Amino acid sequence: MAKGRIRRKLRKSHLYTFCLYPGAAGKCGQPVGGPGFSRTVHCNEPQMHSQKPFKYRANDISTTKYSFLSFLPKALYEQFNRVANLYFLGCAIASLTPLSPFSAVSMIAPLAFVVGLSMAKEALEDWRRFMQDMEVNSRKVKVHAGEAFDKKAWQNVRVGDVVRVEKDQFFPSDLLLLSSNNEDGICYVETMNLDGETNLKPKRALEVTLDLDEDEDFKNFKGIIKCEDPNPSLYTFVGNFEYNGQVYAIDPSQILLRDSKLRNTAFVYGIVIFTGHDSKVMQNSTKSPSKRSRIERKMDYIIYVLFSVLLVISLISSFGFAVEIKYSMPGWWFMRPQEADEYYNPREPVTSGISHMVTALMLYGYLIPISLYVSIEVVKVLQATFINQDILMYDEETGIPAQARTSNLNEELGQVDTILSDKTGTLTCNQMDFLKCSIAGTAYGSSSSDVELAAEQQMANDPVNKVELEAVVSSLSEKGHKSSIKGFNFEDSRLMNGNCLKEPKQEDIMLFFRILAVCHTAIPELNEETGSYTYEAESPDEGAFLVAAREFGFEFFQRTQSSVTVREKYTASGNPIDREYKILNVLEFTSKRKRMTVIVRDEDGQILLMCKGADRLVSLLYLDLISIIFDRLSKDGRFYQEDTTRHLNEYGEAGLRTLALAYKKLEESEYSAWNTEFQKAKTSIGADRDIMLEKAAEMMERDLILIGATAVEDKLQKGVPKCIDKLAQAGLKLWVLTGDKMETAINIGYACSLLRQGMKQICIQATDSDVKEEVKVDILKQINNGSQTIREEKDPYASFALIIDGKTLVYALEDDMKHRFLDLGVRCASVICCRVSPKQKALVTRLVKQGTGKTTLAIGDGANDVGMIQEADIGVGISGVEGMQAVMASDFSVSQFRFLERLLVVHGHWCYKRIAQMICYFFYKNIAFGLTLFYFEAFTGFSGQSVYDDWYMLLFNVVLTSLPVISLGVLEQDVSSEVCLEFPAIYQQGPRNLFFDWYRILGWMGNGLLASLIIFFLNIVIFYNQAFCIGGQTADMTALGTTMFTCIIWSLNIQIVLTMSHFTWIQHATIWGSIVTWYLFLAVYGALSPDISRDAYQILVEALAPAPIYWTTTLLVAVTCNLPYMAHIAYQRCLKPMDHHIIQEIKYYRKDVEDQHMWKREQLKARQKTKIGFTARVEAKIRQLRSKMHKKQ
C-alpha cells in the first residue's frame, strides 16, 4: 500500500488539459439517464448485468457471415440467387417428372456438385473467420474474482468486471481506467488498430482511484458508472462515476478502447463498460462494399443472351413437336395414337407443344455452362494464391508479401484506367528527416531533398539521349547523402558540435532548440546498447524534432507527471546541465487547431509559453487562407517574419514539410488569471465544454514572438519514380490526392516526374470573396479557360497538369460543376489535388469512376484513405507505418508503392486475359456441345430424344472438360513477366477490353456454332447409310452418340491447345488426361452390367474400337472443327498481328538475343505515348537539345 499512500499525496495535475479529466467532485449537469445516456454499470458486480433491466451483451465477437444454424438456408439462398443455378434447380425438379429427357441423376448430380462445391468454399472461408474470432475470444486477461485476479478468456469478461491488463496486451473491452503502475495514473496506449496511428496516446486515471494500485485493494471496491449508450464515436465519451458518495465526470482520456494496446506501462486496472459488439471498435466495423468486376457483370449479359437463344430454340422445338403431333402422329401406328396420353395427343397439339417446351428447356440446358461459376471461383482463388506467393512483391525489409484480400477482382487489375493515390506514406515513406531550419531569420542546413536531387538530375547538361532510362530512374532514389541517424539528415557545421554558441544570435538559437526539446508529448526510452534515447512520439514529425534536438545537444531524457528534463550538452561552462521544466498545461495538437502549445515554468521561475504550428492553412469552413502562427504574433514578435516566410517558401519548393515556432513569456498574474478561466472550462460539463476550452486556448495563444521554423522531409519510397514511369508507359493516368499544401504537393510531383519543366500548369484556386456565387462563377471561369487552352494548343508535345486545392474542390465537386472539372482533369496529363479531406478523396474517386465509366484504382496507407479505397473499383492498401485500417478496407495490399507496377502490369494483364479467354472458351464449348442436341432432335422429328447417354451428359461439364479450362485460367501466359515489364503497352489490351468485347465474344460463339454443325452433320453423313462394323451392321443411336461425343471431346481439347500460348506439364496432364479419362470411362462403363450401362454395354471394346471408321471419323471431325480457328489465327498473325503476337515470334526466333537493336526498337514501340514519368521528361529534354542544334545549323 506504499504506492497508494504516495498517490494520495499527489495533487491534481494540469498535464494534457485537452484530454484530461474534469476532476472536480460534486453533482454534475451531465445528461446521463436521458435518451442515448441510459447505461448503468455496477463496478465489481458483473452478476447484476446478466438480468433485467440490463442484459448487456457478452464480450465474444463474431465476424462470420453464417452461424451453424443459418449456414444451410443462407448459403442455399446465395447460390440460388444466381439465375443460372435457379434455372438448373428448376430442371432438376422437372427431371423427376415424365417430361424429362434425362434421368433425374444426370440433372441433379451436376447441380449438387457445383452448388455443393461453392457452399464448401463459402463454409471454408467462414470457418477461417470463425477460427480468427475464436483466437480473439480465447485471449486471456486477469479478471477480479472474489479476493484475487484469475485469468479468463475474453469471451467470459462481463460488464462491471475489474480487469488487470499488462504491458503489450490488448484491452479486451472498453474500460474505465482506474489506476496504473505509474504513480500519477498515466498509461500510454497505441491505437493503431483503431485509427491507423502508431503514435502513443497518454491516458490518465481519475485522481480518486489512484490508490487502487494492488490486487487486494479491489476486495471491497464498489462504484456506479452512468454513461452514454453504445455508439461508434471513438473520440468522445460522456459519463459520470459515482464513488464514495461523490460524482466525478468521465471524459475520453480515461477510456481505454478495445483492440488498442497498452505500451510503456507495466499494468493498468480498469472497469469493463462496453463489451463485444457494444464496444466502440465493433460499432465502427463496417462491411466492405460489394464489388464485382466488369467481366463478371458482362458475363451476366452473356448468360441472358444464351437464355434468349435457349428460349428461341425451345420454342422452335415445341412448335415443331406440335406440328409433328398434329399432322404426322396419326399415321404412326407404332405410336398408338388412339391411346396417346396428354403429352402425345394429336387431338390437343397445343397442350402437347407446351408440355414439350419443358422437355426442350431441359434438353438444351447445356447451352448454359453449369460449372462456369464454380470454375471461375476456383481459378480466381488459385490466381490470388500466385499473387500472394510472388517473391518479387515481397518486401525483405518488413517481411510483408503482397496479399490478394479478395479474389473477386483479379481480372479487374488488368483493366485499370486511372490510379488515385495518396501521397504521404504511399508515394512517400512517412519517415521524416530533419533537413533544414530557419532560426532568427537565418537559414541553416545544406542537405538536399529528393526534390532538389531530382531538379539537379533534370537540369543536368549530360547528353540524355545516351542515357539508359531505366538505369537513370532506378538510381534516382539512391542518389544523395544517406544519414546514419534515422530522422536526422541535417548538415551544417554552424550548429553542430556546440558551434551554435559561436553564432551571433546564440540566445535565440538556444531557445529554438529548447522549444524542440520541450514542446511535445513524447516518451523517452533508453537504448541500453547505444546509451542514447529514442522516442515514442505522436507523429513522425515530432520524433524527428526530438532526434534533431538531441543531435544539437539538447537531449530530452525524462518525463514525469508534471515535468520534463532536458540535458544540455553544450554550455558556456563546458559541462552538461540537466534543466527541469515544470509542465503547467499542454494544449495538444489536433487536426482542427494545427498547433501545439506547452506552458512551463523553468528553474528560474519564469513561465514560458512554447508553441509550434502550421505556417498556413486553407480553411474549408471560412474559405480563406489562415496563418496559424503568423496571425497570432504580436507587433514586436514579427521581427523575423519576412526572412522566415522567405525560407518557408524555399522549403516548400524543395518538397519539405514546415512548422513555425514561437514563444511568449508570461507574468505570474497573467497566467493565474487565465488558468482560473481555463480550469472552469475544463471542469464544465455539457456540449459547450470543447468550445469553452478552445476559447480559453485562443486567449492564451496570442501576442507570440516568432523564433524560427523547421523543415522536415517526407522521403520518397524506393522505386516510386521508376514505378510511375512504367505505369505511364502502360497508359495509366495518375491523380494524386493529398492533404499537404500546394507547394509541397507540386514539388513532390516534380520528384515523382508527374510534373516537369515545360509542362503547363493549370492552377484552379478560389478567390477570397465572401459571396459564394461570385466564388463559383470565378472557379467555373477558370475551369472553362483551362479547357479552352488545351483545345487551342497546337503543339503536339504540349502537356498540361491540373492543380487544385481542397477549398476550391468544395465548389468544383458540386453537381452543376463537377462534370466540367472532370472533363478538364481527363484532358490533363496529371492531376494533383492538395489540402483535400478524406471525404473529398472519396468524392473525387467517385466522380472519376462514375464520370469516366472506366476502372479506377485507389491506393493509400492511412485511415484517411479508407473512403477512397472503398469507393474505387479496386482498393489497394499499403502495409506501412500508419496502421492497418487501409489494408483492412482494401481488396489488395502491398508493402510498397513500387510493387503496384508488377501487380498491375504483370498479374493484372495475366489475370484479365486468362479470365477473358476462359469464359469465352466456356461458352464456345457449351454451344458446340448443346446445339448438337438441338440438331438431333430436329433430325428425329422433335421427339425430345437425347443422342447421348445420361452419364456422358453428367460428366461433360463436371469432369471431362473442367480441368483443361481451369488450367487455362490459372497458368496461361501470352508473354512472360519480364516481357510484360519490358513492353508495358501490352497492358492496354485490358483497358481497351480487346479480349472480352462483344466482337470477341460473338466470335467465340460463332466458332461454337460452326463446330456444332461440323460435328453433327459430318457424323450423320458418315454413319447414315454406311456399314459400321466389319459384319455390315449400321450404327445405332448409341454408337452414333458415342462417336459424336468422342469427336466433341477431341475437338474441344484441340481447340484449347490452339488457344494456349504457354505450356507446362500441368496443362498437358489436364488436356490429354481428359481425353484418356473419356476412353477409360467408356471401357469401365461398358464393362458394367447391362442393367447399369444399358445400350452402352461393351460399346468401346466390342463396337467402336474395332471399327476403323470410328477412329477416322474422330480424326476428320477434330481437324475440320479447328480449321476455321487456325485460319483465323494465321490471318491475324500475318496481316493484323497484335502486340503479343509480334513478341512471341521475336522470342521464338530468338531475335531478342541475336538482334538486340531490333529488340530495343520494338521496346520503344511498345510504350504508350505519355507526357508524365521520367521517360517523358528525358524525351522533352531530347527535343529541347535537338531544337537548339537545329537553330545553330
Could you walk me through the main structural features you see in this protein, from its secondary elements to its overall organization?
GO terms for molecular function: ATP binding; ATP hydrolysis activity; ATPase-coupled intramembrane lipid transporter activity; magnesium ion binding. It is an enzyme of class 7 (translocase). ATP binds at residues 422-424, 542, 589, 612, 657, 738-740, 835, 841, 864-865. Strand 33 (855-860), helix 23 and strand 34 (874-878) form a beta-alpha-beta unit. The protein is 44% helix and 17% strand. A nine-stranded mixed β-sheet has the order 14-35-34-33-15-29-32-31-30, with helices on both faces. A nine-stranded antiparallel β-sheet has the order 17-16-28-27-24-23-22-21-20, sandwiched between helices. The protein has a six-stranded antiparallel β-sheet with strand order 3-2-4-13-5-11, with no helix packed on it. Mean pLDDT is 81; it is low at 1-30, 461-481 and 617-626. Helix 9 (372-388) runs parallel beside helix 27 (962-971). It contains 38 helices and 35 strands.
Per-chain topology:
Elements (H helix, E strand, L loop, with lengths): L1 H8 L29 E5 L27 H9 L3 H12 L9 H34 L2 E6 L2 E6 L8 E5 L7 E7 L5 E5 L1 H4 L4 E5 L18 E5 L11 E5 L2 E5 L4 E2 L4 E3 L3 E8 L5 H4 L10 H34 L21 H15 L8 H17 L14 E2 L11 E6 L6 E12 L2 E3 L5 H10 L9 H8 L29 H13 L4 E4 L6 E4 L3 H12 L2 E6 L3 E6 L8 E11 L7 E7 L5 E7 L3 E3 L4 E3 L14 H13 L2 E11 L1 H16 L5 H12 L4 E12 L3 H10 L3 E5 L4 H10 L8 E5 L7 H21 L7 E6 H7 L5 H10 L2 E5 L3 H15 L2 E6 L5 H6 L2 E5 L6 H4 L3 E3 L4 H41 L10 H11 L1 H10 L5 H6 L15 H27 L12 H23 L5 H23 L2 H4 L5 H6 L3 H28 L3 H10 L2 H4 L1 H10 L8 H19 L1
Helix pairs in contact: 2-4, 3-4, 4-26, 7-8, 7-25, 9-25, 9-27, 10-18, 12-13, 14-18, 15-16, 17-25, 19-21, 21-22, 25-27, 25-29, 25-30, 27-31, 29-30, 29-34, 30-31, 30-34
EC number: 7.6.2.1
Protein name: Phospholipid-transporting ATPase
Catalytic activity: ATP + H2O + phospholipidSide 1 = ADP + phosphate + phospholipidSide 2
